């Protein structure tokens, strides 16, 4: 007898990493729901990948509970949540960054991750399911880069939420882990840092393997952590960084 496909919810699903995550879970036979800001970008991602979508603005405090209820009603019990939604573009030094920019980063990256984790954990406990939550973090939470402190602080918080949720949800059979990439070679990253550019070379000089992570490599780590092959792993943040944390 074949088991039913797991319902996998991926936030930030319309972006480069989100699409790679969706493709990787689809290859495992899972049923994927992309959750992202409503609009043409999300619709296009859903059409391209042939998966369901759910519009959600995670800066709205009640949005997480609403979208979880909507997905569960339409697609059934959620088996996996991947918290991939996040913003990276608000940069500035510690003396220059506007407080509002720091707050905006925290609102999406930290509060959005927490709200979705809480809503899905409540759903899994109510459904009596032993699910998995995977957060997309960053090695920036452990290794500072000047000007990127707001983003990196938010990812350090994501790692802390991962450990907090893991220890509290273990008794319910819910595992919580994180994937922590270094720079990921998405189309947006490649457009801003083309091959041979000084900025790209500066980043590569910090990576012992001399290459940025491919989005598919990040997705493969997330699929592993959400799978039965990682059944005894919880509360960890797995670097996918080409050795960058070694330097």
Binned, the helix content reads: 40-55%
Total helical elements: 8
In CATH terms, the superfamily is NAD(P)-binding Rossmann-like Domain
Rough outline: globular
Number of domains: 1
- Give the radius of gyration: 17 Å
Rounded average pLDDT: 96
How many strands? 7
Q: CATH architecture, please?
A: 3-Layer(aba) Sandwich
Order of helices and strands: EHEHEHEHEHEHHHE
Major beta sheet, strand line-up: 3-2-1-4-5-6-7
**CATH classification class:** Alpha Beta
* Secondary-structure class: alpha/beta
- Strand portion, in percent? 5-15%
**In the CATH scheme, what's the topology name?**
Rossmann fold
Terminal Cα span = 49 Å
**Unreliable segments of 5+ consecutive residues:** none
| Largest sheet composition | 7 strands, parallel
Question: Layout of helices and strands, plus pairs?
Answer:
Layout: E1 7-11, H1 16-27, E2 31-36, H2 40-49, E3 52-55, H3 63-75, E4 78-83, H4 99-127, E5 132-136, H5 149-169, E6 175-181, H6 187-192, H7 198-204, H8 215-226, E7 237-240
Parallel strand pairs: 1-2, 1-4, 2-3, 4-5, 5-6, 6-7
Helix pairs in contact: 1-8, 3-4, 4-5
């Amino acid at each position: 007898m074949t088991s039913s496909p797991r319902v996998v919810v991926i936030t930030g699903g319309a972006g480069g990493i989100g699409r790679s995550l969706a493709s990787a879970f689809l290859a495992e036979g899972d049923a994927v729901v992309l959750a992202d800001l409503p609009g043409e970008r999300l619709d296009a991602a859903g059409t391209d990948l042939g998966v369901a979508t759910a519009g959600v603005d995670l800066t709205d405090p009640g949005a997480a509970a609403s979208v979880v209820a909507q997905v569960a009603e339409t697609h059934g019990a959620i088996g996996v949540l991947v918290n991939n939604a996040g913003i990276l573009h608000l940069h500035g030094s510690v003396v220059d960054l506007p407080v509002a920019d720091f707050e905006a980063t925290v609102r999406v990256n930290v509060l959005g991750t927490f709200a979705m984790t809480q809503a899905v954990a409540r759903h899994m406990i109510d459904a009596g399911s032993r699910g998995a939550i995977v957060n997309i973090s960053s090695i920036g939470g452990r290794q500072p880069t000047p000007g990127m402190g707001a983003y990196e602080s938010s990812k350090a918080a994501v790692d802390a939420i991962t450990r907090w949720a893991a220890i509290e949800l273990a008794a319910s059979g819910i595992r919580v882990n994180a994937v922590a990439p270094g720079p990921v070679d998405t189309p947006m990253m490649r457009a801003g840092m083309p091959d041979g550019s000084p900025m790209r070379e500066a980043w590569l000089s910090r990576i012992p393997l001399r290459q940025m992570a491919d989005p598919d490599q990040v997705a493969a780590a997330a699929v592993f952590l959400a799978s039965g092959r990682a059944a005894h792993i919880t509360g960890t943040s797995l670097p996918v960084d080409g050795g960058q944390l070694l330097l």
